[in-house]
Amino acid sequence: MADEQKTEHPVDPPVDRARRMAALRGAERVLSGHSLALTIGDRLARLAAEAPEAYDLGEGVDIYGDGVVEELERRVAGLLGMEAAAFFPTGTMAQQVALRCWAGRTGSPVVAAHPLSHLEVHERNAYATVSGLRMVHPTSDPRPPTAEEIRELDEPFGTLTLELPLRDAGFVLPTWEELTEVVAAARDRDAVVHFDGARLWECASHFGVELPEIAALADSVYVSLYKSLDGISGAVLAGPSSFVEEAKAWRHRYGGTLFQQWPVALAGLAGLDRELPRLPAYVAHAKVVAEALKDAFRAAGVPWFRVHPDVPHTHQFQVWLPYPPEALTAAGVRLAEETGTWVFNRWDAAPVPGLAVTEVSVAASALAWTPAAVRDAVGALLERLDRPDGGGGGAPVG
């Protein structure tokens, strides 16, 4: 499948997805789950319970972005230490508007970004087909670019976009020193800097600084309201006031100024209250879980495995195993159905033939998992790979 046809969340066959979600929904212990398992009723009940603490429900509903939406914008701008912010229905729209605005202001249609960035992998080449921009790549290695690579790019560029963390490379981050050097290198080349910070919320622990200090390095920052905050959807683009006003004009042209958005805005505010204070604990426990997974794979005699990064930079990381992804997914579903224990989300074929990869997200449900519990659950899952109904058999591939 061509890159421009990829989407961030591949769609399962209806029966397979329904069974997976039912198994996850019924699990009593969840290591790495997903809020998509919640029913509509679950989401409505949670929103009704949390909304009164997040916003005054005696206020009227929003109309084209006022009221509760403006409160969300003010809240995010304050958290990031930015002058202003604009709510967008999707991160893709927020990113495209940001790049378009900076291209107009710098006079350059060239954007420097990683080939594994969301812009390249998950947005169907929108920067080119919608906004007429062009991309250059400082590096193709599966890691953030270095300051030297930014300085040595062989053509001018107007905007440097950095995805923090770089999700498709394994949720990896530079060090704080490396990040400041990369930004300085872009400034030396008279470029502006945009942070694709969909998951910026959980980066502060790794960098050892607070969110405003991170955001202050960039000219604009996009953050998601659902990827770490477990909201319904939505994104916020923050930056200087004049930039945000221009972004709002383009938001209208792109069809992003919706008549009412109060459910998404309320869920975003509730997510800031509920999840943001917990993220440092998630990041810390992800390191415990990652080490326990490595111990479990060794104990089970797995011939090859990789937990990447070896020490997670955020509360999310990759796990690679040498088994068919269909077999691993089926074994995990059966484990949940039979024991009430859910370990991993869906497994996919890895870019390297013969391997499967999954993303582990350590959140509230994982905090009670001890290393021993992780090892026992992984062992029980791998035992189910040898069962005849294991989705194709569990023998290592290749």
UniProtKB/TrEMBL annotation:
GO BP annotations, alphabetical order: glycine biosynthetic process; L-threonine catabolic process
Domain of life: Bacteria
Domain Aromatic amino acid beta-eliminating lyase/threonine aldolase span(s) in chain numbering: 65-295
GO CC entries: cytosol
Cofactor(s), names only, from the UniProt record: pyridoxal 5'-phosphate
Organism for this UniProt entry: Streptomyces luteoverticillatus (Streptoverticillium luteoverticillatus)
Protein name: Threonine aldolase
Family affiliation: Belongs to the threonine aldolase family.
InterPro entries: ArAA_b-elim_lyase/Thr_aldolase, PyrdxlP-dep_Trfase, PyrdxlP-dep_Trfase_major, PyrdxlP-dep_Trfase_small
Keywords on record: Pyridoxal phosphate
